[in-house]
Specification:
This protein has 472 residues and is of the alpha/beta class. The chain has helices at residues 7-31, 45-60, 84-103, 119-128, 144-154, 199-203, 211-223, 249-257, 277-285, 302-308, 314-327, 346-359, 386-409, and strands at 36-41, 64-65, 74-79, 108-113, 134-136, 158-160, 181-185, 187-188, 207-208, 228-232, 264-268, 292-294, 332-339, 363-368, 415-423, 431-434, 440-443, 453-461, 466-470. α4 links the parallel β4 and β5. 40% of the residues are buried.
Length: 472
């Protein structure tokens, strides 16, 4: 059974929130404005959800938010440890912050998240980036009020990166920017220990939230106008295994489906080894569960999958895809793929391309393998050169882009219900939204439609998005 942070400890953190608010009021009296915070998030949706909690705490403490670090009094970077590129970006930003702090010494800089849950990273920051004021890991997020207060009072570097399996905390503030969609974490941590992945080491063991807490959060979101819910977990299919009651992820989906006011339900991420017939049936029969599935396969070769510790074969994966398509013919599929796992040969990579062609994913999230210190795969020697790996990666993109365009072409001429997200990122004269199958559709319309559902006829397809027009 998952451990919870005791209510007394949460109440203690709320007393620090009051102290921070008093500090903010004094700051406002002195400076004629509220203290300003800038937050940046790297990594997955779980990190995005964690940042919403950080922003909720800061808002409760009297902070307002700005988009640029140079305009802020407090900068918090919520970091990712999954790939080296994400860490490099953080180090680059820290270099920029050093220059900002030289001209603005009162600036407070904080790092949190998966990256700083690693001891060697913390040691590097302590030695090289002494301008960082606060470091706290994934398990200490609920302590932010106390940690920030101590940082502001002591003017010394404060560090809390306790190594534990993690505990669940409830009843802390959360601030979401989107009024129509929301991420809801149903569980934390991971027990799978894929040989290339650092997540179990920085996020701890799997621990499920109690269903009544999840349902209560969703009902409150609906009361605030949210209609689309995305249930989050490192492996949602493991939900409930650590609870005292008999409940699994399919059962939870049905409970959420029964909540009045919820229009759409999405979830991520599923692990193929735990993805079975019961969940497929639930997706097919629950009318609010979107016809979208993200099911990472990572590599197509059985020997490589075994070295990755993925616990399924290529054929087992493709059989699951076949069953999903049979039960839900209009399903939209996406996946994660790692190219260049250390022992993967060119011949074995061809199996990955074979999976692409047979599964016909609508989209893929593909990455070149990134060595993670502390994982078993980090000890393996590469059999391919960087040039060969890059060539394979480019070939994968070539094959998938053709498939994605073909899948999107099939949408042209048809009418779909679209939840309007807002103004298109690529054209401020257009609106953008998503279909039930998570296809991005751009179309002309009034901004008053944001957060609403509209009927859109698709008129044009591209590799990554669709264009359309509102059907009156």
């Amino acid at each position: 059974m998952a451990e919870y942070i005791e209510k007394a400890e949460i109440e203690r953190q709320k007393t620090y929130l009051l102290k921070l608010k008093e500090q903010s009021n004094n700051f406002a009296i002195k400076n004629g404005r509220k203290p300003r915070a800038n937050t940046e998030t790297y990594g997955c949706q779980q990190n995005e959800n964690d940042t919403e909690r950080i922003r909720g705490i800061l808002a409760e403490a009297g902070y307002e938010f700005v988009d640029k670090a140079e305009d802020a009094d407090l900068v918090i970077y919520n970091t990712c440890a999954v790939r080296e590129n994400a860490e490099d970006r953080v180090y680059g930003r820290l270099g920029i912050l050093k220059h900002i702090k030289e001209s603005k010494p009162e600036l407070t800089i904080a790092l949190c998240g998966c990256m700083v849950q690693q001891e060697h990273i913390v040691e590097r920051i302590k030695k090289v980036h002494r301008h960082v004021d606060l470091i706290f890991g994934t398990h200490a997020l609920y302590k932010l009020p106390e940690l920030l207060y101590n940082t502001l009072c002591s003017k010394k570097m404060v560090i809390d990166t306790e190594n534990s399996d993690g505990k669940i905390f409830e009843d802390m503030p959360i601030l979401r920017d989107d009024n129509s969609k929301a991420w809801v974490s149903i569980m934390y941590g991971c027990n799978n220990f894929c040989s290339y992945c650092i997540v179990p080491y920085v996020r701890g063991r799997e621990r499920s939230r109690k269903p009544e807490m999840i349902l209560s959060e969703i009902k409150n979101l609906v009361a605030d106008g949210v209609t689309e819910i995305c249930l989050l977990g490192q492996n949602v299919n493991s939900y409930g295994k650590d609870l005292d009651e008999e409940i699994d992820f399919s059962d939870l989906l049905k409970m959420v489906n029964d909540i009045d006011g919820v229009e759409r339900i999405r979830f991520m991420t599923s692990h193929p080894k735990d993805f079975g017939d019961k969940l497929i049936d639930t997706m097919a029969t629950c009318q609010k569960v979107c016809h979208q599935l993200h099911l990472p396969f990572q590599a197509g070769n059985d020997r490589v999958l075994a070295e990755m510790n993925r616990k399924y074969t290529k054929e087992e994966y493709l059989e699951k895809i076949r069953k999903v398509k049979e039960r839900i013919p209009d399903i939209s599929l996406s996946t994660d793929i790692i190219v260049g796992f250390p022992t993967e040969t060119n011949e074995e990579f061809l199996d990955t391309l074979d999976v692409l062609r047979k599964a016909e994913f609508d989209s893929v999230f593909s990455f070149i393998y990134s060595k993670r210190e502390g994982t078993p795969a980090a000890k393996l020697d590469f059999v391919l050169t960087e040039e060969e790996i890059k060539k394979n990666f480019d070939k994968l993109l070539e094959v998938q882009n053709e498939i994605s365009k073909k899948k999107n072409d099939a949408y042209v001429g048809k009418v779909f219900e679209v939840l309007v997200d807002g103004v298109s990122k690529n054209n401020d004269q257009m609106l953008s939204g998503r279909t039930d199958t998570a296809k991005i559709v751009n179309f002309k319309g009034d901004k008053s439609l944001c957060g609403k559902y509209v009927k859109v006829r698709v008129t044009e397809s591209h590799t990554w998005s669709l264009n359309g027009e509102i059907v009156e």
